Amino acid sequence: MIELPHLDETDQAIIKLLHENSRISYAKIGELLSLSRVAIQKRVDQLVENEIIENFTIRLNAAKLGKVVSAFFEVEVEPRFAEEVGNVLAEDPNVISIYQMTGSSSLHMHALLKDDAALEQFLYHNIYKLNGVVRVNTQVVIRRFKQGTGLEL
């Protein structure tokens, strides 16, 4: 477990429990930590207010929802178009995450797509058509060993 020096042991324990199961009730957390539900709620509210906790979410099984192709893209972009291309791609519902990386002007992107035809469509109609795109390196995931949800404690 990563120790966060600016958080006390109770806050760290709350975060760990929420990370394992974001649906756990404040009453159950309180029971596990020997605190009241109200005390837990106040601490969680403070963690949210201080932006330690950014949001509460679920992880969906993409394959069961018809998105069987998981692909990562290195999109090399002319520097003057990097922000524009990044913003356009960030709006695409297939895109899970996108980051601007150091080095050559490249964007690192993860997308989930229905099938190989959708991958081809995405490449040619959503990426290559954008002004400033120089090259795209695509890597399709064949097996996942671990998927994170952000910083894990």
UniProtKB/TrEMBL annotation:
**Keywords recorded for this protein, A-Z:** DNA-binding, Transcription, Transcription regulation
| Annotated ranges, domain HTH asnC-type | 7-68
| Pfam families named among the record's database cross-references | AsnC_trans_reg (PF01037), HTH_AsnC-type (PF13404)
Q: Looking at the keywords, is Transferase present?
A: no
The organism's superkingdom is given as Bacteria
Fetch the PROSITE patterns from UniProt.
Answer: HTH_ASNC_2 (PS50956)
Q: Does the keyword Transcription regulation apply?
A: yes
Q: Which PANTHER family match?
A: LEUCINE-RESPONSIVE REGULATORY PROTEIN (PTHR30154), TRANSCRIPTIONAL REGULATOR AZLB (PTHR30154:SF34)
The name of this protein is Lrp/AsnC family transcriptional regulator
Give the species this sequence originates from.
Paenibacillus aestuarii
